[in-house]
Predict the structure.
Amino acid sequence: MKFTLGIAMSPLDQMVGIAKTAEECGFASVALPDSLFYAESVAAKYPYTSDGSRMWDADTPWVDPFVAAAAMGAATSTIRFYTQVLKLGSRNPLLLARQIGSVANMTGNRFGLGVGLGWSPEEFEWCGVPFERKGLRANESIEVLRAVLAGGMVEYHGKLFEFGRLQMSPAPTEPVPIYVGGHSEAALRRAARLGDGWTSAMIKSMSCALSSPGWGSSARSTGAPTSRSRSKPSA
């Protein structure tokens, strides 16, 4: 059994030391959170608390997960780093591909990508991206990331993203695993069809076990083999 250490809301000046200690203690990986900014007022409820309130405030510390992974990777040698989860909706997949490829190369292929759609309309709109069609945006973003990170000349022609032949070098020497987050049926289908696995958000092991029939049916409905659809442990 492998264990992942979640470090959400930790002081930034302690993160490298936490990663070094986690590696010494035998942890397999560190889960890195993602937050762009704190909007004073939000139009939607936070989906992972019972009352819809956020469990952090404007002064809670956050760091860009790619910067954190690079810093931690430079101070360690075996422990892996995952985003749990990076909000795809407000980000351009080509810019994101460059960040992911850079971190994967700089850490010796010790980086994995956990992704989610994002729940706050403000994060989309204030980053210049419409909140509508966020599911399609996430699907196409994952396809773009896989194509670009595989290396060589690629092009993409989707409904929301389109570009001619391009190449980013160097490509990671190993595939970057992508774990898709979310507890809805649509999220499970996305994980089965486009991901290397699934990642949870603040859900207990028993709840995961109880929800596994839905996971299996989602994998079968997409034609994805259930044996491939392995889950990433919750941090």
Summary: Helices lie at 15-24, 65-74, 93-106, 121-125, 134-149, 185-194, 205-222. The first strand starts at residue 4 and ends at 6.
